[in-house]
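quick one before i forget lol
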Amino acid sequence: MNFMTGRQYGTDRLAEDRLAPDPLNQFNQWLAEATQSSTLDPTAMVLATVDEQGLPEARVVLLKQVTEEGFVFFTHYTSPKARQAESSGVVALNFYWPALARQVRIKGQIKRLTREASVAYFATRPRESQISTAASQQSAVISDRSEWEQRMQAIATQYADQPIPCPDYWGGYCVVPYEFEFFQGRDARINDRLRYRLIKQQWQIDRLSP
C-alpha cells in the first residue's frame, strides 16, 4: 500500500498572547488574511449536520456575512441540510485555508434570519441566481438535466419584465457559536490548537494537544 506524503506547514505559530479575546474578532482577522492569500474560495465552509437516523452529513456552503451574532448563510428551507439543522438545533462549521495551513472549527446553535433579511439579500443576487433558486426544489430527484433547464426557462419567462420574488421556501440562517477551535499547522505536525468555549457568557481559552 502506498501512502500519500504530507507537506510541511511552515513555521507560523499561534500563541495565547496573539489571540483576540473575542473569537469572532479572531475569526475576522484570519478570514481577512485568507482572503488576501492565494487560498481559493476563502468563504467556503463545510456545514455538518446529522440526519434522522443520527448519521452525519457534510457539504460545502458559502459564508455570506459574519455578524456580531454569528455566521450567516442561505439555502432552501426544504433541503436536507435545513431540515436536519432545524431538527437538532445545532450544527458544526469548518473552514480550511491551505495556503496558510489554517483551519477553524465551530459549533453553534442555528436560527433562521428574519424574512425581511432574507428578502433583502435575495434582491442583491444576480438575476440568474434568482432564477435558479426560484426554479429549484433542492435535492429532489429530477429525470434529467432538461427538466431542470425547462423549469429555469419557465421562471425566466414568467418574470421577464419584473423582479423575481424571493421564494417563501428559501432564506438565511445564522449559526450562533458556542465553541471555536483555531488550528495553525506547523512543521513536523507540531501544530497549534487553541479552543474557545462559551462558559457563563464568558469565552474561556484552552490549548489542545496537537
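fyi The mean pLDDT is 92.
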